[in-house]
Known about the structure:
Keywords: Cell inner membrane, Cell membrane, Membrane, Transmembrane, Transmembrane helix, Transport. It is found in: Cell membrane. This protein is mostly helical. It contains 14 helices and 2 strands; from the N terminus they run H-H-H-H-H-H-H-E-E-H-H-H-H-H-H-H. Helix 5 (about 95-120) packs antiparallel against helix 6 and helix 5 runs antiparallel to helix 11 (about 215-240). The longest helix has 29 residues, at about 290-320.
Amino acid sequence: MDKANKNIKEKLGTIANGMGAWLIILILIVVMTLINDKFFTVSNFINVFRQVCVVGICALGVSFVVLGGEIDLSSGMSATFAGCNAALLITKCNMPVWLAILIAVAIGSLVGLVSGFIVTYWKIPSFIGTLGMQYVVQGFILITTNSMPVTGLPDSFLYLGRGYIANVIPVPVVIMLIFFIIGAFLLKYTPFGRSVIAVGENPEAAALSGLKVKMTKMLMFTLGGFCAACAGIVMTARLSSGQPSSGSDLSLQALAAVYIGGTFNGSMFNTLAGALVWGFINNSLNLLGVSAYWQKVVLGGIIILAVLLDTIRAKVSVKKQ
């Protein structure tokens, strides 16, 4: 009997570990459906997905950096910089929307490349290097915008953040899902994805096996900058203006999505789950009328708990081996 119970517990533990953040989402949905009748509605679910799009796209790029054994604190400002640059190019330089977006995304990728160079070649710890880049980019944002919102954007640009397909599916949700499908493919089926995981696990062993560690790190930071810039375009389109302070919390939210989702298991869709957990908790607290101040306390506690659980899970996995 004890052996049977032990087997059942092990199976349940394996299932829970495999589901990770998806199990948290399922529990949240069940609990909130019982508590609040406004939660389990199509409009509310669409609203949650729309809210997590910017964080999700940014977190996708951050996932590659974290899986590669580094951290990126500049992604939020890179997103804001790209959004404000696109807005300025469209409104002040009368540039076509597609060209302004292309240039803004290229600049965001360049920020990621510079961060990668600082970390890889100057041997500055990524926490400090990207924190410095965050302030550098923030300074450029304030200089270029004069600390003022950039308004007057055309409908063709706003469609990326506020539009709907068939009047049902939000455009930013489609963009986010496309990004995650491509990201999952890159991680699982390309040499680059396998190199990122190898470098993150053991850079010395990766170098000895013939992998170009420095090139891999440069690429993953550049990809992080690219995703942050794309997130910034969607964010600016959603806000209908380039807001110099719009991405102040985005870096930490993106990192939270990575850690809550348990992306270390090697699945990019875990990051999506982490972003959705963040979105559903925010949504639940709003529906329950919890103060915005207390929401920050709760969300901060969830980040700490997520990291703690991931640490415990890693130790248990090592013991089993």
